[in-house]
Design a protein that fits this description.
CATH class: Alpha Beta
Helix content: 10-25%
Distance between the termini: 28 Å
Structural class: alpha+beta
Strand content: 25-35%
Amino acid sequence: MRPDRGNGSRPQPRGGTSALRPRDAASIMLLDRSGTEVRVLMGRRHSAHAFMPDLYVFPGGRRDPTDHRLGFSGDLNPTVLHALKGSEGRPITDARARALALAAARELFEEAGVRLGAEHGRLDAPLPFLPDLTNLRYMARAITPPGQARRFDTRFFAVFADEAKIDPSEVLESRELQDLQWIDVDDFSSLQVPEITAIILADLRAGLEADSSLPHDRAIPFYFTRRGRFLRTLL
């Protein structure tokens, strides 16, 4: 992940950036439900980052142009694929929708060393594993408000560690995401998080309370700014 990647929005107006076009990005909430409380993996962005320095976020970053060419072992749930393609605004292609999910899987590996899929042993492949997108839930979408030096159109995904056969103890810090921690989704008061991250966590808690399995066909909250107003709608 390069320093200008982000995962959401926190209004910090800056002159001359209002017309900046948001770039596709993806963020992933890796959930551990092995204990009495559900925990989510978060880490602190490096202080040298231009976007959200020193704040705690989920692994994630911008979609790379090559993400659509990554192979995968399991496809997105049809409901998730449909929701990604038909969200508010101009509909996107299957390839772009999958690329967003693949970007989330790639970022999880690059930032936390976590493989969302089985290793394949090929040395010439871009990733040492084939991403399995089967269990990804589409949780939210958020566009960074105008006025920031970086703007992203971020899709937030979630996956349960046990469903993905991920050992919660096997996470590694990276240059981009430091001090990785498993955070109780009901109490993240000890961390400094972006406003949009706190909002997405509240949505996650509400979703878990409504149905702890986080069904694939849930309504998707979409956050954006229009005429200076921060808005929420459902996709």
